[in-house]
Amino acid sequence: MIFDLELLAKVFAINLSYVTLSTIRFMLTMKGYRVLAPLLSMVEIVIYVLGLSMVMSSLDNPLNLAAYALGYGAGIGIGIKIEDWLALGYTMITVMTQDVDSPMPNQLRNLGYGVSSYRANGRDGERLVLEILLTRKAERHLQNKVLEIDPKAFMVSYDPKYIHGGFWSKRVHLGK
Question: CA-CA distance, 141 to 139, in Å (whole number)?
Fold first, then answer.
């Protein structure tokens, strides 16, 4: 078995790059970035072919395959971290509080959030429900504000697939 450190480093780096781009491209595709995702996929496939050809030309060395696999795993992790850092798109947070007369909706509106609220019945009685659409970059800030107002608040967040009309309609479609 030949130990070619330079080849191992190249195989690892190429697969790391490929899978990182692949992970980001997949997330861009899911968020509807119809121009950026295909452009990124073109770079991604060139890197993929280069890495695969290096490994295929030296399959007799299991270290090359191991470097390829390590690059793949590391690429997924790094791609997820980059996407978290970019925080692309929007999220919808539903907040439920036991205090039906809570000042939370107005406090959050004063901070610039669009808040729709209504009363609902839960297992243990009436609740105030807030629906808040925001950028993913602002998600942690909003969660902290909600918990500052009501440490017992229940929150659920999810990515909306389609948004039309309302407070955010002009801002939501920018950049896609």
Answer: 5
87: left (phi over 0), alpha (psi -120 to 50) or beta: left
For residues 165 and 130, the model is more confident at 130
Locate the domains of the chain by residue range. 5-86, 90-158
pLDDT tens digits for range 125-144? 999 999 999 988 999 999 99
CB-based contact 128:99 (threshold 8 Å): yes
Could you give the CA distance from residue 166 to residue 176 in angstroms, rounded to a whole number? 18
CATH fold of 90-158 reads: Alpha-Beta Plaits (3.30.70)
Four-residue CA torsion sign, 136, 142, 147, 148: positive
Q: What angle do CA 47, 70, 51 make, to 5 degrees?
A: 20
Whole-number pLDDT of residue 167: 62
